[in-house]
Amino acid sequence: MSKPINVGIIGYGFMGRAHSNAYSKLTQFFDTEHVPVMKAACARNRDTITEFAGRWGWESVETDWRALIERPDIDAIDICVPNHLHRDIAVAAARAGKMVLCEKPLAMDASEGREMCEAVERAGVPNLVWFNYRRVPAIALAHQLVDEGRLGRVFHYRGLYLQDWTISEDLPQGGHTLWRLDVAEAGSGVTGDLLAHSIDTAMWLIGGVDSVTAVTETFIKERELQDEPGKVMPVGIDDACAFLVKFKNGAIGTFESTRYARGRKNFNTFEVNGAKAAMYFNLEEAHKLLYYDHADDGIIRGWHDVLVTDSDHPYMSHWWVPGCVIGYEHTFINALADFLTGLDTGVPSQPDFRCALETQLVCDAVLASARTGQWVRVGEA
Ligand code: SOE
């Protein structure tokens, strides 16, 4: 018998749409015991949220997130609003006994993240951070290959996350669509927004980070406010960030992220080099994992593409026939399915808040290192 989970979503932007799509498609592709019910959507503007709710199939609307949390018919709160609101909503939701699903990064910084962890753990409510790229089948396959010991000892990890959408000096900061450029709402720039993805993936694949040394740059020092045309304010975010990592297992890594890499749109890549094999992934060709196996016969040994669409590849038995690729939106459906399966089995899916706090701690260490020019040890979650 199915167990309905009544969801209340807060926010209607890019992630509000991606999550709504996941809730509406889940049961068509996955057979979980717990199933989401799209109960209520919440945002300050009634007209906007009513239009959004109608388009995606949310049953009702609220204009105050506190009222949503108080509703007895809501079991789970999904947070899809800018980062500076994550902590207050998550803590209030946990106190009200609701499950909490939160967009990445977990928080503005690790101290907020700790409060959020304590709140959900004290309340004993299931919780999740939507690091959706773990649910790209090719990345999940990479994880499986490392787990099976196929790479041997890992020496190197190289992560890149490159975009180019903020190069124009005329782009304002803040407001509904550009809050990622406003440090008061985002907490940081590419470090929290993009490198958090890369760090989560890296730690999932090869383990925790011991210490980092970083450099950041803000190329455009002032921008107009989107909501107050004519008012120009300093830019407080990091436009670009590069850092070196010592992993706890002895591997070393390099990471780079920017929104100024002309030509790169969502170029989220990694390469892992182990003693026995190596892997390369590029999100812009997300259906492939490049693999090099040193055990192959020497005369044909080389990098080859694995087309990750067979039914024995992660998640793919739920989708189409071999050769038919899935896309960005499916990573959220896969993530939701994992969360619900965690409820079914009692084994929580990852990353939960505590796991995402580890990523937040690496982000904090990266930003601290960029400020001081020193190596920084990553704190304990
Ligand atoms: C930024 O442009 C952004 O939308 C991130 O916020 C997302 O997390 C990333 O997946 C795509 O890029």
Tags for this model:
single chain, 381 residues, alpha/beta, Rossmann fold, Dihydrodipicolinate Reductase, domain 2, 9-stranded mixed sheet, 6-stranded parallel sheet, 25% strand, binds alpha-L-sorbopyranose
Specify the helix fraction band: 25-40%
Q: Ranges with pLDDT <50 over ≥5 residues?
A: none
Domain module count: 2
Structural class: alpha/beta
Order of strands side by side in the largest beta sheet?
16-15-14-13-7-12-11-8-17
Q: What bound compounds does this protein have?
A: alpha-L-sorbopyranose
Largest β-sheet summary: 9 strands, mixed
Task: Let me know the number of strands.
Answer: 17
Q: Give the distance, in angstroms, between the N- and C-terminal Cα atoms.
A: 38 Å
How much of the sequence lies in strands comes to 25-35%
CATH architecture label name of the largest domain: 2-Layer Sandwich
- What do the pLDDT scores average to? 98
CATH superfamily of the largest domain: Dihydrodipicolinate Reductase, domain 2
Give the overall form. globular
What's the helix-strand series?
Answer: EHEHEHEHEHEHEHHHEEEEEEEEEHHE
| Rg, alpha carbons | 21 Å
Count, helices: 11
Could you please say which CATH topology of the largest domain applies here?
A: Dihydrodipicolinate Reductase, domain 2
Q: Could you please describe the fold and organization of this structure?
A:
The protein is globular, with a radius of gyration of 21 Å. It contains 11 helices and 17 strands. The chain has 2 domains: about 130 residues, Rossmann fold (3-Layer(aba) Sandwich); about 240 residues, 2-Layer Sandwich (Dihydrodipicolinate Reductase, domain 2), CATH 3.30.360. Helix 1 crosses helix 10, helix 4 packs parallel to helix 5 and helix 9 crosses helix 11. With about 375 residues, it is of the alpha/beta class.
